């Protein structure tokens, strides 16, 4: 028997008998990232980085010098997954700082969520020079969008493979795990209590996005449908949308078209530096 079929069957039964207990277990699983080692192709960039620790314990890697670009990886991700982008940004004269998100890499914590990711961006921004741009992948992109609503100031923002609303992702996870209706409701409620924000509020349709941006997504993303990028684009007046025919959820980070589009956006902002202060 397929293992997931068995898991869903058990969850369906437990979800009817003890929905709150099962929801609590899955909330913990949902918010506890695994630690995944870097791939071989990431190691040269890792070796060339300067490791820094921010005031409240967040760990980050730094490369180059020049206008500061802050990067946030996705769930269970790593800074060096941005290797192609980082190398291109440094070659173009930018200084890059890439965070280990809370509960990831060398940053403290056991659990994390999109709100903690967003607060980490705000913490980093408070210690770094004025940000020329912020680039986030997947949950890192969602957290960067949220952080702008919490006071993050940056000249531009790039969202890659990000969802437009967190509630969709929570419901998708609950359905995938086979939770019956009552257990799903408890699961979402417990996630909201832990994060401190109603899931329905974590939706770009509710955001005021008043800065230039770029949205990147692959047509064949198996985790976050490309339609999410369209929703973000519609809600974000000053944004450009780059849809790639292929690239999955992570491979597109190394696509030369992505680097080209990012450098083009950052070049526009560099010619109008006052936008950093106005955003």
From TrEMBL:
Q: Which UniProt keywords apply?
A: Hydrolase
The domain of life is: Bacteria
Instruction: Please name the InterPro entries in this protein's record.
Output: AB_hydrolase_1, AB_hydrolase_fold, Carboxylesterase_BioH
**SUPFAM superfamilies with a match to the protein in the record:** alpha/beta-Hydrolases (SSF53474)
Indicate the segments forming the AB hydrolase-1 domain, all copies. Answer: 69-256
Q: Name one GO molecular function term.
A: hydrolase activity
Does the record bear Ubl conjugation in its keywords?
no
What PANTHER family does UniProt report for this protein, alphabetically? HYDROLASE ALPHA/BETA FOLD FAMILY, PEROXISOMAL MEMBRANE PROTEIN LPX1
Task: Give the protein's recorded name.
Answer: Alpha/beta fold hydrolase
Taxonomy, top ranks, is: Bacteria, Pseudomonadati, Pseudomonadota, Gammaproteobacteria, Pseudomonadales
